[in-house]
């Protein structure tokens, strides 16, 4: 009886948290999009590319910070013991300190070889501080995720994002150029750390339990192995591509990727909620199947039309502002990144479910496949075609993810194509409809407004006619959020 009650509670909490965190993430993306938009007016393409390159470099450090112990704590079925928390904290901070020492030992030689100057150094220092501050937030964040308290987590994320873009835009406007990124990164990291410990304090302490470490490493190391492979696939390949095409072209790619990443904030929100949720439901396979289907539909319903809409209105937004035409070369790559993001939006929840139920080896094999394809296609096409080739490579590698959709049918009895059918068809029809708007030769503002109005109207009319039950479910969840 108690088990059934817990399951019902998890279902209710998960639905509420997904929608709440999704709405919050859209708010965060709204803030970051406006901030990024202003920064890309005030700064040059090379400045944007420089920050993206350094940010990618420091992000690599995060993969070495806890060897998967935080994920092991979240996935753990039993209650977390104090010894496990303190053992995790000790191991993590030891790894963080070692990693930062290695950075400061080897960076001077790298800077000399690559011709890096003061701007690159200060951006690196600020991002290293951000890396250290993020490591201190790991345990409080784990405790919140175990409780599925994503409202508080999302509130802290909003505070960090507002502070970053406010100060980045402010100092860029005052003429600090690329240093604006460094200043804003320091402030954001400090605000986020202080806020996390105000709302989710824990008795910081160091201890080491060999038994606890063994239990955590048993899940954490295979999990982190996937993260290392993902790092080699995404972060290292991006740095390699940046070395091939240069900061200017990498800035173009960064702009092209920004738009498709906005709808993926919904996916990020769902991933954050569903990993601990799927972990709780791993002994209830029928309920897990339904939850995964609902997750895939919910993601497709919002992500597909958003990616289509962003791709079709991007040229109108650029043409609205004369100084913004420097980003016109990013439009063509944006289309390929959007298509790749649509595939990833459906693939990631499935691999997330594999991890949650302990099928780490399946995910590892998939990650190895994607990494090999990435290191084949990204360098070759980037060398031959520049940043356009990088965009082609992204879609080629992303298309291989259809094998994951087949695995979802085999392991969870989830028919992905059937689940996402209506969001996919309605989004494709919307694309053709909005392309048709272009033949009227309206002004950029009129074209933008018409596409938004027509696209939203068509999409919701379609779903009102063909998927009324799913819309009713969504409205019911919104009412639950209002009540909470």
From TrEMBL:
Main location: membrane
Keyword Transmembrane: yes
Assigned GO CC terms: plasma membrane
InterPro entries referenced in this protein's UniProt entry, alphabetically: Poly_Biosynth_Transport (IPR050833)
Membrane-topology descriptor: Multi-pass membrane protein
Keywords: Cell membrane, Membrane, Transmembrane, Transmembrane helix
Signal peptide span: none
Transmembrane segments: 21-43, 49-69, 89-110, 122-144, 164-184, 190-210, 295-314, 334-354, 366-383, 389-408, 420-440, 452-476
Pfam families xref list: Polysacc_synt_3
Record's subcellular location: Cell membrane
Family the entry assigns: Belongs to the polysaccharide synthase family.
PANTHER family: LIPOPOLYSACCHARIDE BIOSYNTHESIS PROTEIN WZXC, PST FAMILY PREDICTED COLANIC ACID TRANSPORTER
Protein's name according to its UniProt entry: Polysaccharide biosynthesis protein
Organism: Candidatus Shapirobacteria bacterium GW2011_GWE2_38_30
């Amino acid at each position: 009886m108690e088990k059934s009650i817990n399951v019902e509670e998890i279902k209710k909490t998960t639905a509420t948290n997904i929608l709440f965190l999704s709405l919050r993430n859209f708010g965060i993306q709204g803030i970051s999009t406006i901030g990024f938009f202003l920064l890309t007016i005030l700064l040059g393409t090379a400045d944007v590319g420089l920050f993206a390159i350094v940010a990618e470099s420091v992000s690599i450090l995060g993969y070495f910070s806890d060897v998967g112990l935080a994920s092991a704590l979240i996935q753990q079925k039993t209650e977390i013991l104090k010894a496990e928390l303190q053992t995790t904290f000790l191991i993590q901070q030891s790894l963080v300190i070692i990693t930062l020492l290695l950075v400061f030992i080897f960076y001077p030689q790298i800077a000399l070889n690559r011709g890096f100057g003061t701007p690159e150094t200060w951006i690196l220092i600020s991002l290293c501080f951000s890396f250290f501050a993020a490591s201190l937030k790991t345990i409080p964040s784990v405790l919140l995720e175990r409780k599925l308290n994503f409202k508080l987590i999302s509130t802290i994320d909003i505070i960090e994002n507002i502070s970053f873009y406010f100060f980045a835009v402010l100092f860029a406007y005052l003429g600090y150029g690329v240093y604006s990124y460094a200043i804003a990164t320091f402030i954001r990291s400090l605000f986020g750390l202080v806020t996390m410990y105000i709302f989710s304090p824990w008795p910081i302490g160091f201890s080491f339990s060999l038994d606890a470490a063994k239990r955590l490493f048993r899940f954490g190391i295979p999990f982190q192995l996937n993260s290392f492979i993902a790092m080699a696939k995404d972060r290292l390949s991006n740095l390699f591509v940046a070395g091939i095409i240069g900061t200017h072209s990498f800035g173009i790619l960064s702009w092209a990727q920004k738009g498709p990443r906005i709808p993926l904030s919904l996916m990020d929100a769902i991933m954050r909620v569903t990993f601990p949720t799927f972990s709780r439901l791993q002994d209830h396979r029928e309920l897990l199947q339904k939850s995964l289907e609902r997750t895939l539909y919910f993601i497709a319903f919002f992500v597909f039309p958003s990616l289509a809409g962003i791709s079709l209105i991007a040229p109108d937004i650029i043409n609205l502002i004369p100084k913004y035409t420097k980003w016109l070369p990013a439009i063509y790559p944006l289309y390929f990144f959007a298509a790749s993001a649509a595939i990833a939006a459906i693939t990631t929840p499935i691999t997330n479910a594999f991890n949650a139920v302990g099928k780490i080896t399946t995910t590892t094999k998939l990650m190895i496949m994607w990494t090999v394809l990435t290191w084949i296609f990204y360098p070759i096409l980037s060398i031959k075609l520049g940043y356009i080739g990088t965009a082609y490579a992204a879609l080629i590698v992303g298309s291989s993810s259809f094998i994951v959709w087949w695995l979802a049918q085999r392991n969870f009895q989830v028919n992905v194509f059937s689940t996402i059918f209506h969001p996919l068809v309605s989004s494709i029809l919307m694309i053709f409809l909005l392309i048709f708007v272009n033949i009227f030769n309206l002004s950029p503002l009129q074209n933008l407004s018409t596409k938004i109005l027509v696209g939203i109207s068509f999409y919701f009319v379609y779903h009102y006619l063909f998927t009324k039950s799913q819309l009713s479910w969504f409205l019911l969840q919104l009412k639950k959020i209002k009540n909470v």
